Amino acid sequence: MVPTNNSRPNHEEIQELLQEERENTEQEHTTLENNEARSLDFLYDVPLEVSVEVGRSKILIKDLLNMGEGYVIELNKVAGDPLDLYVNSRLIARGEAVMIGDKFGIRLTDVVSASDRLERLGK
């Protein structure tokens, strides 16, 4: 029932409106709880490409084709400079090379701040 302009809603109408409001609030609360339970768990299985860059260089195609065993490519970094860690082609951190047994790894020494990462998203 919709009240007319000249009358106030009766007690039953007010109770119906309040009940509808309670039901809507309960549904919203349930939806929020379900979303919180999911949180970021669904992201855990998303694959990411992680790469560590030792340095960069530009070479000519003819030099690339002439490469063979023992060929040396000069990189733009000096030995001891930090290595760059990229996730999906975005700089995330810098670090130093470490050996663990017979494997190489990277020890992070500087993580790019969240604000810097967000700033670079548009680039």
Automatic annotation (TrEMBL):
It is a peripheral membrane protein. GO terms for biological process: bacterial-type flagellum-dependent cell motility; chemotaxis. Residues 8-35 form a coiled coil. The keyword Membrane applies. Residues 43-112 form the Flagellar motor switch protein FliN-like C-terminal domain. PANTHER family: FLAGELLAR MOTOR SWITCH PROTEIN FLIN, PTHR43484. Belongs to the FliN/MopA/SpaO family. This is Flagellar motor switch protein FliN. It comes from Desulfotalea psychrophila (strain LSv54 / DSM 12343). The lineage of its organism: Bacteria, Pseudomonadati, Thermodesulfobacteriota, Desulfobulbia, Desulfobulbales.
